[in-house]
Design brief:
With 175 residues, this protein is mainly alpha-helical. It has helices at 3-11, 15-35, 40-60, 71-90, 111-127, 130-141, 146-153, 157-174. The chain is 72% helix and 0% strand. The relative contact order is 0.09.
Length: 175
C-alpha cells in the first residue's frame, strides 16, 4: 500500500489498513525495543500504542500526509519516543537518548540510522567515568543548573562548568 492509500484508509476507518500496518511494521518496532533493553511484550505494547497514536493523529487532523515524510518513519518515531519515555520512567538515570548530547543528524537519514547513532552515543556515554556520567546526566537529562550541580557535588560553580566542558570533550573524542 502507498502512504496515500494508508492515509485515506485510516480517514475512512478501514480496519484492513490497521492489519496491514501491523503486519508490515511490527518486526521493525519489535527489533528496536529488543535492542534497547526491552522484551517482546514491551515491544508489542509500544507498537500497539504507536499504531493507536498514528490512527488518532490522522483521524483528528493533527497529522497531515506530507510528501517529504513517510508514514512508516512517522510511526517509527512515535514508537521510539514512546519507548524512550517508558525507559525514562523505569530507569531515569540510564537513558541518555534523545538528549542535547546528541550531535545533529543531517536531514535525509532514515529513522533507523538516527536510532543507531543515538544507540552508539549511549554506548559511548557508558564508557565515561562515573563523575562525568553524573555531571552530564545532571545537566542534560535532569536539566539542573550548573549552580545546582555544583552544590550537589560540593564544588564551585566555575569548577562545575570546567568539569562539564571536560566531560563533553571526552565524550566527543570517544564518540
Amino acid at each position: 500500500m502507498t502512504d496515500q492509500e494508508i492515509f485515506e484508509g485510516i480517514v475512512q476507518k478501514d480496519n484492513r489498513v490497521f492489519r496491514y500496518l501491523y503486519q508490515e511494521h511490527r518486526g521493525k518496532i519489535l527489533n528496536m525495543v529488543l535492542k534497547n533493553n526491552g522484551n517482546e511484550e514491551d515491544a508489542l505494547d509500544i507498537f500497539q500504542e504507536g499504531l493507536l497514536c498514528l490512527w488518532t493523529n490522522i483521524q483528528s487532523g493533527k497529522y497531515q500526509l506530507q510528501s517529504q515524510t513517510k508514514l512508516s518513519s512517522y510511526l517509527f518515531t512515535i514508537c521510539r519516543n514512546l519507548w524512550i519515555s517508558k525507559l525514562r520512567k523505569l530507569k531515569p538515570s540510564l537513558s541518555i537518548e534523545n538528549q542535547q548530547l546528541a550531535e545533529p543528524v543531517e536531514e535525509g537519514n532514515s529513522e533507523e540510522e538516527k536510532y543507531e547513532r543515538l544507540k552508539q552515543l549511549e554506548q559511548t556515554f557508558k564508557k565515561l567515568d562515573e563523575a562525568c556520567r553524573k555531571m552530564l546526566s545532571s545537566f542534560y537529562y535532569q536539566k539542573l543548573s550548573l549552580k545546582a550541580i555544583a552544590e550537589n557535588m560540593g564544588i564551585t560553580e566555575k569548577s562545575a562548568k570546567n568539569n562539564k566542558y571536560r566531560c563533553m570533550k571526552k565524550l566527543r573524542s570517544l564518540y
